[in-house]
Amino acid sequence: MLDVMYFAWVRERIGLPREQVDTEATTVADLVQELSAREQRYALAFADLAALRVAVDQELTGFDAPLAGAREVAFFPPMTGG
Amino acid sequence: MLDVMYFAWVRERIGLPREQVDTEATTVADLVQELSAREQRYALAFADLAALRVAVDQELTGFDAPLAGAREVAFFPPMTGG
Amino acid sequence: MGRVRIQSEPFDPGTELEGFGAGADVGAVVSFTGIVRGAGELARMEIEHYPGMTEAAVGKIVAEAEARWALADCLVIHRFGPMQPGERIMMVATASRHRAEAFAAADFVMDYLKSRAPFWKKEFGADGEAWVAAKDADEEALRRW
Amino acid sequence: MGRVRIQSEPFDPGTELEGFGAGADVGAVVSFTGIVRGAGELARMEIEHYPGMTEAAVGKIVAEAEARWALADCLVIHRFGPMQPGERIMMVATASRHRAEAFAAADFVMDYLKSRAPFWKKEFGADGEAWVAAKDADEEALRRW
Known about the structure:
The complex is a heterotetramer, with two copies of chain A and two copies of chain C. By secondary structure, chain A is α+β, with helices and mostly antiparallel strands. Chain A contains three helices and five strands. Chain A has helices at about 10-15, 30-40, 40-45; strands spanning about 1-5, 20, 55, 60, 70-75. In chain A, β3 (about 55) and β4 form a beta hairpin. By secondary structure, chain C is an alpha+beta fold. Chain C has a single domain (about 5-145), classed as Aldehyde Oxidoreductase, domain 3. Chain C contains four helices and eight strands, in the order βαββαβββαββα. Chain C has helices spanning about 15, 55-70, 100-115, 135-140, and strands at about 5, 30-35, 40-50, 70-80, 80-85, 90-95, 120-125, 130. In chain C, strands 1-4-6-2 form a four-stranded mixed sheet, covered by helices on one side. The radius of gyration of chain C is 16 Å and the shape is globular. Chains in contact: A-C, B-D, C-D. β2 of chain C pairs antiparallel with β2 (about 30-35) of chain D.
């Protein structure tokens, strides 16, 4: 079971801030594909991966990152702090 | 009549902060020579011009600056503000 | 040494700077304050963040600044939630023996906060609402360091 | 727009920063505070200046900063007279729409204050007294601009 979180417009497009996902995905990219296949709102949110960032267990990483042992994955647009 | 001012260690070496000087000097360099010829404390203070800065009428300038119309000349070491 | 506060409440830079760096032999204190712009056009801004990751990410940025420069103190305060134009969003303060270090560290922390701390700004105006887009220049700024 | 205060009295940066840049559509406020170092070694520092020229020279530096960057406000406070280690010597504050401008302008003003404003520092320690020497690096720093 993976905690999947969405922030900013990713959250708005998918329509929820977090959910528990029962998945066998081994990488972030696999998880994205799995979610995109579910419903159109996911497919739309993940349509352009270049516009997205991902964190696994609160560490920024790439879409090829492995999910072995991961508890939390978060998707969001580029950050605008400061 | 020229108001001549000294700051920091120049003031300490010459022994006074300002004086009125009756001079025909046409440049700052001439004035320096005239003062240096007066007494040793002036000669000592002006021994190394590279270690000195000069302002004519409160504007930084060079030792070749003309004194025509000047009312105030100040000698001091490089500034250490901030 | 460094201190990080992520909060929704307003803060007062003057109060934060009181005694900042005192005790250490500090010669230079630099502070940066970021303020919501858009008076007259913007109704409000809302900042979303990623609780947990935010504190960790900002803490890492501060630790990196402390590894690069000899800082006596480094403080980051960053707000989230709704804010009006004119309100303060965040501040960075650095204290060091020398000016160059304090300036560089504050600039570095700001550059990294812009694109490595999980905050997202949304603007609400007369024309509706829109997420603030990250600038390519912000990402490029990181290459300075 | 810019404001210059040359004074012997202490000042409080928090008070000075209260409402600084307010009213203009300011997004960034940068402040620098310079403090007397040398706690434990230095009995005191004394700053001599050239009344009249000081105000004019610092005013020119501020005007130059305002010509180069779009500043909503720029404040310089510089003290003279005797000071203890830990006491504030001076501060610069800049307010602008954007961060880069506010940082650059504060840095520029500091560089010019160092070697173009008629102040001279003298340190009084256990070993006696000595005028602080200007650094070649301070003069070289001006070439950045």
